[in-house]
Amino acid sequence: MSIKGYSIGHVRDIFLVIVYITPNLSSENSVSFFDTIEQLLIKYTAEGDTLLMGDFNARTGNIADCEVDPTADCSEFISQPEYVNDVCVQLRQNCDKKFNK
């Protein structure tokens, strides 16, 4: 999907790369699928700004929910004065203990 940049006051066009990976493809055996996504990103990044989003059906087990950079200052991007830094869930409460490499 693409959005013409001029229509929203943006200099470059915006390309939305939307992905859904079925659970049976979410293993490391789906290398060719990820190669295809990589080629799309290379193509559209040359033509405009890209946003990759979707459901990758990643298996994350109980690894940390996010990575926190305590030195990051997001205030220039977030204008709400009540915003506080993200809180990372150190141990996920997930019954599925497996994770993709």
Q: Helical amount among residues, as a percent range?
A: 10-25%
Q: How many domain modules? A: 2
Q: DSSP helix count?
A: 1
- The computed structural class is alpha+beta
Largest sheet, spatial ordering of strands? 1-2-3
- Report the count of strand segments: 3
Described by the principal axes of the CA atoms, the overall outline is: flat
Distance between the termini: 29 Å
Beta-strand residue fraction:
15-25%
Q: Output the radius of gyration.
A: 18 Å
The average pLDDT value, as a whole number, equals 75
Helix-strand string = EEHE
The low-confidence runs, each spanning 5 or more residues with pLDDT under 50, are none
The largest sheet is: 3 strands, mixed
Please describe the topology of this protein.
Elements: E1 2-3, E2 14-20, H1 31-47, E3 49-55
Parallel strand pairs: 2-3
Antiparallel strand pairs: 1-2
Kindly list the characteristics that best describe this protein.
flat, three-stranded mixed sheet, 3 strands, 2 domains, alpha+beta, 101 residues
Report a brief summary of the structure.
Helices cover 17% and strands 16% of the residues.
How would you characterize the overall build of this protein?
The chain has about 100 residues and is an alpha+beta fold. It folds into 2 domains: about 55 residues, no CATH class; about 40 residues, no CATH class. Helices cover about 15% and strands about 15% of the residues. It has a 3-stranded mixed sheet, with helices on one face. Helix 1 links the parallel strand 2 and strand 3.
